[in-house]
Amino acid sequence: MDVGEWNAATAVAVSKQDPKPARGRLWSGAKIRYIRGKFAHLRRNLQRKKRLDLVKRIGHKEKRVVNQQLHIIANEIIAYAKQFEKPVIVMEELKNIRKNMNGSAKLNRRLHAWSFKKLQTYIEYKANLEGIPVVYVNPKNTSKRCHRCGHVARANGREFRCPKCGLVYNRDLNSAANIAHALTRGMGWGRSEPPNSQMKS
Ligand SMILES: [Zn+2]
């Protein structure tokens, strides 16, 4: 599982039999972005009018509205996981939020990071109820690494293009695959495809 802004969540499945990412699924972040944009606009107006008491209050309201969306997504993610035999959900350990921001930018940023963390918390909570283990892995290079050959490159826009092996892949699906591989590599499952998959005869 990858969590993010463009796609609120992205899932792929890898199995011992076939470590190649499969059954990719994306949960759009559009609705949450829309809610957040609306509240950011409201906050800016209130700040201009020096109504800081109200700025805080609508922050709480925003969290409630976003929460509803996160619950829906988390439920669907659990249903996604349950289609597999003995699933394990792998997510990245999120870093701390930047502190050197102030005013509405800071609040926007905090709410933003808050929703990523919250979604993970909901997934973990619901997974526990279903007896599905949840594992967190180091987020290093998950968005920059090619899940097929391991080369580290820069993602460009919504697509990941690997200059080494030529892979062209949805950026978030590539990240999700890297997150899964961060766990399965340590279990000796291999990275993605059979080593000879790129050889042309
Ligand atoms: Zn590659």
What's the gist of this structure?
The chain is an alpha+beta fold and 201 residues long. The protein has helices at 30-48, 52-82, 103-130, 171-184; strands at residues 2-3, 7-13, 22-28, 89-92, 134-137, 159-161, 168-170. Helices cover 46% and strands 15% of the residues.
The average pLDDT score comes to 87
Report the biggest beta sheet as strand number plus sense, adding barrel if it closes: 3 strands, antiparallel
Structural class: alpha+beta
The general outline is: globular
State Rg.
Answer: 19 Å
Strand order of the largest sheet: 1-2-3
Bound molecules: zinc ion
Structure notes:
The chain is of the alpha+beta class. It has one domain. It has helices at residues 30-48, 52-82, 103-130, 171-184, and strands at 2-3, 7-13, 22-28, 89-92, 134-137, 159-161, 168-170. The strands form three sheets. Strands 1-2-3 form a three-stranded antiparallel sheet. It has a two-stranded parallel ribbon with strand order 4-5. The chain has a two-stranded antiparallel sheet with strand order 6-7. The structure holds zinc ion. Zinc ion is lined by residues 146, 148-149, 151, 162, 164-165, 167.
